Amino acid sequence: MIPYVDSFRDPQVINVLLDRIRQLACGPVSFMEFCGGHTHAILKFGLRALMPAQIKMLSGPGCPVCVTSQVDLDRALALASQDGIVLATFGDMMRVPGTKGSLQEARAEGADVRVVYSCLDAVSLARAHPGRQVVFLAVGFETTAPTIAASVLKAHEEGLSNFSVLSLLKLTPPAMDAILSAREVKLHGILGPGHVTTVVGTRAWEFMPAKYRIPCAVAGFEPADILKAILALLELVKCGKPSVVNAYRRSVRAEGNPKARHFMKKVFHVVEAHWRGLGWLEESGLAFREEFQAFDAAVRFPLKVGSDGEEPRGCRCGEVLRGVMEPPQCPLFNKSCTPERPVGPCMVSGEGSCAAYHRYALSPKAF
Fold first, then answer.
1. Is the four-CA dihedral 256, 258, 259, 265 of positive or negative sign?
2. Among 152, 188, 255, 260, which is most buried by a count of CB atoms within 10 Å?
3. pLDDT, tens digit, 9 for 90 and up, residues 48-72
4. pLDDT tens figures, 8-24
5. Domain range for residue 45?
């Protein structure tokens, strides 16, 4: 049994969890934390240094900015360069390098690119500027998609004809399925994404033990949350009975959030999507249903992108996202690729593995 944790940074609680982890860590195991937020938390709190050396933690593809393909980035840049368009986006997207620069550079050259905190902010921009076309650049997973769907419904209700969305939204289970089926890395368990699972529910991960005989433990983002989930994975590996464990019970339920999924399904339908590092994955993206295509920027502004989406020379983000390589193994890491001059998106995003290693692993800190 895993104890309920009341104090998520209490040293006594942490030490109890670490003692149990050390007792169970009898042989080498590799776990993948799907979520970029987990990678940052693990490094920020020095958890790798505190755990036994037999436990190897690998980063996964759980950074929506990082997995956005080069072609999609170039499409956003092409949209931003059009006269009369206001491109609204989250701050993480501003400095991600496309084939011909970034959105930040496009803004410096005169494009009207604005940072917003939600899709509703973009709706407000469209309302305030009826003579301009406002396009929201929608990048995210299941946590972001419901609020974007709700914003589209709001714009539809108001009859806003100058608001649209470029949907680069993605669904996470197909990405994890692709990594496990590729078998590029030997994994003994998966640290499931906490925020995503609040929407999709723990049942979304049941294919892992059923199809691959690999356990999954859904985790929160505090030190005790993560250690509790790792302990659960070790227990499942030891008993040889893989299953899905909810180690984030204060936020996650088996059924997830049906209302949030209702909004998603009302506005979007599931399509094939292109992921950086993983290629085209079936049923992993969200596109507008026919009744809402008036808000689809890809339909409203069918631009030709003058590039084939070639990755930046020497960038190994794709391999980092698949867990094949750790960021310091990339020859560009902390040399020609730094947060000030990023070559790839993994060094830019607040959930990027390279950014996490640069910020925390170069000067490890324990809480």
1. positive
2. 152
3. 999 999 999 999 999 999 999 999 9
4. 778 888 999 999 999 99
5. 11-65+173-246
357 shares a domain with 293? no
Model confidence band, residue 222 (pLDDT cutoffs 50, 70, 90):
very high
- How far apart (Å, rounded) are the C-alpha atoms in residues 234 and 30? 10
Residue 147 and residue 237 in one domain: no
Instruction: Determine if the pTM surpasses 0.85.
Output: yes
Q: Could you tell me if 79 and 127 lie in one domain?
A: yes
Helices 11-24 and 223-239 meet at what angle, rounded to 10?
20
Burial 165-184 (b: 16+ CB within 10 A, else e): bbbbbbbbbbbbbbbbeeee
User: Distance between CA 3 and CA 288 in Å, rounded?
Assistant: 43
Specify whether the CB–CB gap between 194 and 205 falls below 8 A.
no
User: Which is more confidently placed, 312 or 156?
Assistant: 156
Give the C-alpha separation, 244 to 190, whole Å. Answer: 9
Contact 61, 89 (CB under 8 A): no
Q: What are phi and psi of 358, to 5 degrees?
A: -65, -40
Q: Both 61 and 159 in a single domain?
A: no
pLDDT on residue 2 = 47
